[in-house]
Amino acid sequence: MRAKRVAAAGFAGLAVFAIAGCGSGKTNDSGGGAGILVGTTDKVTSLDPAKAYDNGSLLVETQVYQFLMNFAPGETVPKPDAADKCGFTSPTVYSCTLKPGLKFANGDPLTAQSVKFSFDRMVSINDPQGPAVLLDNLDHTDAPDDKTVNFTLKKANDQTFPSILPTQAAAIVDEKVFAKDRVLTDDEVVKGKPFSGPYTISSYDQNKLAEFKSNPDYNGLFGKPKTDTVTVKYYAEAANLKLDVQQGNIDVAWHTLSATDLDSLKGNDKVTVHQAPGGDTRYIVFNLNTQPGGNPAQKLAIRKAVSTSVDRDALATNVFKGTWAPLYSPVPKGVAGGTEPIKDIYGAKPNKDMAAKFLADAGVATPVELNLQYTSEHYGPSSSEEYAAIKSQLEATGLFKVNLQSTEWVAYQKARSTDGYPMFQFGWFPDYPDADDYLRPFFTEDNFLRNHFGDPKITAELNAELTEQDPAKRATALATVQHDLMADYMPIVPLLTGNQIAVAGKNVQNVDATLDPTSKFRFGVLSK
């Protein structure tokens, strides 16, 4: 999630208010060029990495926390950040050596013990809304001295572990600030100043306004930020975000403008709409315990019937104006290892006759009543239109009666992870650009979706692709997982995949440099 992951994504906002000097080209006192004002509708779930697995939290974490390895702008192979070097010392041990003299903004030293504490804490707390699921192959972490960290893995030759080190599960925190057994409040995090990334947080009003200052002690992959002060302003309404960026009241709009707004802004000569492949995905998730159906066979038939009834092309074209595309697998086709099993097995177009046969063969009476939940603001302003269209498509078959409800994001997150919804909207942004990241978090036992899916066959297939060192054989193993999931289980219904999009004033430089499949929007590359 990334659900930025997830993929996950988002912050709640405020009514728009004026900020003196922001977006006006005012020069910072520290001499780092004109300050930049970023606007977003995303919500921050938490500043504590143990609980944060969403786009809004990732935006902050990318700036203020350091990682052993990270993704340079535009690159998909991780490089050392806090680490001086990393690599396998045996098939089951991945070892990193830290750079000398690292420290947090509060003056505390950042050592191998800090790294061990961070990973031990993430696994121990295992918050249901957090990213600990990404560390499912980590057996334990050791710090034999101040500069060495050894990760012992459960499965040998894990081809994804280096790419997991730049994710939200691997942010390095200060053991003198963070409690080992509980999630900190945002106020506790800000006051503790446990930041070692390119920026620190100088002021913070959750989901209203946050100010970031360049960290003079940062020693990592990205170097000194091009802009010393960046302010993030959070919006309740995407319409106000659009208005402010087109009028020059903010410099950059990042997540999430409607497809209609983006289309209109492309004709505005004061801004540039920047777009690049991103790999974001949208699904309907079924809770296998609470979804309709009297037995497993009936439940599977209902899931397949829903998948073969939705019109993905119509959603992409009519709702999203071509900024999203149809998705026929949990993995977008543009990601290495991605295939399109739904198109191959069931066809690209909706098929009412096929859907009806699934239900009839399983003895399911129609119309099937579906309680479908979505969140009206977290995945962008088009969600209401998207789910109204899905309801219309399903009911037009005569096979379904859809009860559609929306919920604010914070309550939504809690309810969907505690059996609150039989069917629900879910979005995913990749933690790292690999097909495994679209599969393992969702389809292992005790997965991030908390939808009670888990099967030994799929687990075995995921283990096989994870540890296969031959790229061609690994691609085949990934294709097998995707095919079997959609043919035999269908625990989610893939719908759409989208791009990374930001709208910026003409005087903002280097926006394109940070739009890439890693989903990391890096303030440090931006300048005016």
UniProtKB/TrEMBL annotation:
It comes from the Bacteria. The keyword Lyase does not apply. The keyword Mitochondrion does not apply. It is found in: Cell envelope. Keywords: Signal, Transport. One of its GO terms (biological process) is peptide transport. One of its GO terms (cellular component) is ATP-binding cassette (ABC) transporter complex. Pfam families: SBP_bac_5. Residues 91-447 form the Solute-binding protein family domain. GO terms for molecular function: peptide transmembrane transporter activity. Residues 1-20 form the signal peptide. Belongs to the bacterial solute-binding protein 5 family. This is Peptide ABC transporter substrate-binding protein. It comes from Nocardia yunnanensis.
